[in-house]
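In the design runs reported in the main text, the only information available to the sequence generator was the tokenized backbone. The following block is the verbatim input for one such run; it is reproduced so that readers can re-run the procedure and compare outputs position by position.
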């Protein structure tokens, strides 16, 4: 078995407003990095559409049709100051969520050891009732609830090392003790959530805010002292990573100082935990990362570890 890479050309057709940091160049940088010979063994598939019913496990009611109805025929339409729709955004968002669903199915079927979803728009800021923070559908939460709804699993965990707190995933998981969310993130920073006091029901939420300027030492300590012990105690049946790479020292949108070696270390730690808790079942989903060069290098380092699992 090997690592499955899921993406789709349509994810480059989501084009926010001019100068927006969350642009198609992000996926192009990743594609270039993963075209290197050492990634020849990746199992590569195009992401399917997510079904509305799959997304509705996270975003209920009229959320999906109402959002898709706002996709403009031309130009860019702002849902808020940060979050835009373009003519290709609906297709991209459906493919992004669909990639995570397909990744879960492939791992559960034994077709791959684990998976990485190179998709955009990202997802972890999308709340159950509204899009925000560059995010339209909460891709990782859709995958988590698909693991339950389609495969009969119950205890699902997401670990998020994006520089921004995943308020949307936290909101979706808050009241369910069998859903676990852990995040390391810079604070203060957008979106303003993620205090260590935010603990959900039965302490199923673990937030470890890091001060501006924090780097490898602080990140690894946060993981060792807080995230890994709580996740080990939770004993998930499936583990997801919200893999944002914008805590990298070269990223322009925040002020943490991670390196590629930190992403290697964190990936190894989470893979080891998944092997012990849930037979290695793990899906990683792209979130942030806004310096294309640093993003490409970081994703390459992350995926190389997945391939060694």
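Verbatim output:
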């Amino acid at each position: 078995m090997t690592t499955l890479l899921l993406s789709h050309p349509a994810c480059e057709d989501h084009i926010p407003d001019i100068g927006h940091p969350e642009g198609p160049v992000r996926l192009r940088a990743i594609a270039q990095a993963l075209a290197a010979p050492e990634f020849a063994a990746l199992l590569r598939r195009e992401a399917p559409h997510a079904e509305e019913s799959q997304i509705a496990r996270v975003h209920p009611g009229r959320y999906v049709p109402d959002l898709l109805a706002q996709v403009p025929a031309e130009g860019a339409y702002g849902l808020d100051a940060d979050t835009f729709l373009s003519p290709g955004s609906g297709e991209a968002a459906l493919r992004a969520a669909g990639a995570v669903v397909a990744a879960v199915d492939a791992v559960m079927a034994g077709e791959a050891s684990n998976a990485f979803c190179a998709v955009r728009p990202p997802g972890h800021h999308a709340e159950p009732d509204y899009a925000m923070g560059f995010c339209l559908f909460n891709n990782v939460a859709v995958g988590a609830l698909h693991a339950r709804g389609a495969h009969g699993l119950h205890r699902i965990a997401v670990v998020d090392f994006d520089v921004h707190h995943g308020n949307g995933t936290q909101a979706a998981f808050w009241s369910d003790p069998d859903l676990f969310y852990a995040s390391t993130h810079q604070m203060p920073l957008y979106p303003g959530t993620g205090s260590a006091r935010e603990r959900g029901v039965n302490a199923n939420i673990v937030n470890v805010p890091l001060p501006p300027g924090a780097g490898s030492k602080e990140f690894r300590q946060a993981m060792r002292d807080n995230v890994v012990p709580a996740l080990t105690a939770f004993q998930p049946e499936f583990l997801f990573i919200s893999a944002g790479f914008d805590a990298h020292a070269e990223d322009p949108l925040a002020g943490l100082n991670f390196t590629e070696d930190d992403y290697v270390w964190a990936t190894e730690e989470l893979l080891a935990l998944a092997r012990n808790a849930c037979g290695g079942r793990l899906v990683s989903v792209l979130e942030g990362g806004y310096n294309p060069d640093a993003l490409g290098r970081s994703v390459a380092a992350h995926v190389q570890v997945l391939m060694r699992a």
